[in-house]
Amino acid sequence: MPRRINDMPKRIITELSDEQEAMLPIYRDKWRSIQISAESIKQEKVAAVIKAAYAVSDYPEPEILFYSSPMTAIEKILAIENFKVYLGRDIHMKFGKRVIDHLQHGITQQLEEHLFIRLRNQIQHPEFPYYSTHSHPLVSYFPYTERCLEHQLTADLEKLELEFTDILYFTNNLTRPADWAILGCMLDFCISVLKRMFEKSSCRYQKF
């Protein structure tokens, strides 16, 4: 049975090796490609990942439904009586608490706080620690498309004559591609690269 993050000994990593630093662009490119991809998801693969994430966090396996578009999903949900009660808390908050917070907590137990913050900044801004200036603005490597998505989704939802709170409920759950990509890259790098490096190297870099 695989060991869970909470079962691992608490060890603090204070710096990355040059080899680990060199792996950052690979993971950055990987997750940017995922973020901007317009290909249809592979439902079986996605379902397996979600189930595994919930299993690690000791929460019951959720019901997983797939739809052809966000609007189709919303229309199906709106057909459910008291749909907010049926869904519970906002989906992004629920997933964040049950899965993301659990994984991130395990990683922060392993990384020194300043390294955790620096690593996240390096993932989002390849030129970190340079600062934005008028002639050389600091631009996120992950394009923020939230505003365009939110405007389009809001326009579509207004046609359904929904209350503003209902529109906000759905847009909050469906317009975070850049944030999810940055966090996914962070978790993927920490769990995959640092663990693999630790197994290959000496005890200088202690890992999960």
Quick overview:
This protein has 9 helices and no strands. The N terminus and C terminus are likely disordered.
List the keywords:
208 residues; single chain
Q: Given the helix and strand composition, which structural class is it? A: mainly alpha
Low-confidence stretches: 1-9, 197-208
pLDDT average, as an integer? 79
Query: Which sheet architecture does the biggest sheet show?
Result: none
% residues in beta strands? under 5%
What's the count of strands?
0
Helical content (DSSP H or I, runs of 4+)? 55-70%
N-to-C SSE series?
Answer: HHHHHHHHH
Molecular shape: globular
Helical region count?
9
Describe what you observe in this structure.
The chain is 60% helix and 0% strand. With 208 residues, it is mostly helical. It has a domain at 13-30 and 89-200. Helix 1 packs antiparallel against helix 9 (177-200) and helix 7 (146-158) runs antiparallel to helix 8 (164-174). Residues 1-9 and 197-208 have low confidence and may be disordered.
What topology emerges from the helices and strands here?
Layout: H1 18-36, H2 43-56, H3 70-78, H4 83-87, H5 91-108, H6 113-124, H7 146-158, H8 164-174, H9 177-200
